[in-house]
């Protein structure tokens, strides 16, 4: 099982790398690519073709800031699920959020919160868990631990 993490500039790296950390914890193979629909459109098409057809990637996480066309353009080239991460490069990230979430009918991008690449990874894991039962088990365990830790940390045990 493989996931691609694609982002528009090396300036997005710190935010987007958090997705890889979570995927790694779940034992999911991933590859990071810095690609831009605006700056290297031909290269983007080339890589997309390869990652789906030759490398068997099953889900794509795509992050970009400013006029964030990258996730939408990626979605237009593939039927793999694309999860968009709006990045705060200006205007608090609102420009990017709106660019990513407001896709025209037929080409959706599942959009998470601004800078929330962690949730993008989580959603990709949930999507893959439909196909891989061992992943579903790990997710259920993750949720159980999260709940227990929340109860412990917030003092709810005593309540
Ligand atoms: N939105 C896009 C695209 C695209 O959509 O193709 N390519 C780069 N970018 C974004 O531009 C911002 C500034 O990039 P630089 O820091 O390289 O100038 C980054 O957040 C990147 O994702």
From TrEMBL:
Domain of life: Bacteria
Pathway as given in its UniProt record: Purine metabolism; IMP biosynthesis via de novo pathway; 5-amino-1-(5-phospho-D-ribosyl)imidazole-4-carboxylate from 5-amino-1-(5-phospho-D-ribosyl)imidazole (N5-CAIR route): step 2/2
E.C. no: 5.4.99.18
Pfam families: AIRC
Keywords (A to Z) from UniProt: Isomerase, Lyase, Purine biosynthesis
Gene3D superfamilies: 3.40.50.1970
Domain PurE: from-to ranges: 1-150
Chain coiled-coil ranges: none
Keyword Isomerase set for record: yes
SMART domains: AIRC
GO molecular function: 5-(carboxyamino)imidazole ribonucleotide mutase activity; lyase activity
Family stated for the protein in its record: Belongs to the AIR carboxylase family. Class I subfamily.
InterPro entries associated with the record: PurE_ClassI, PurE_dom, PurE_prokaryotes
Species of provenance: Oceanirhabdus seepicola
Catalysed reactions listed for this entry: 5-carboxyamino-1-(5-phospho-D-ribosyl)imidazole + H(+) = 5-amino-1-(5-phospho-D-ribosyl)imidazole-4-carboxylate
The protein's name in its UniProt record: N5-carboxyaminoimidazole ribonucleotide mutase
Annotated function: Catalyzes the conversion of N5-carboxyaminoimidazole ribonucleotide (N5-CAIR) to 4-carboxy-5-aminoimidazole ribonucleotide (CAIR).
Biological processes per GO annotation: 'de novo' IMP biosynthetic process
Residues at which substrate binds: 9, 12, 39
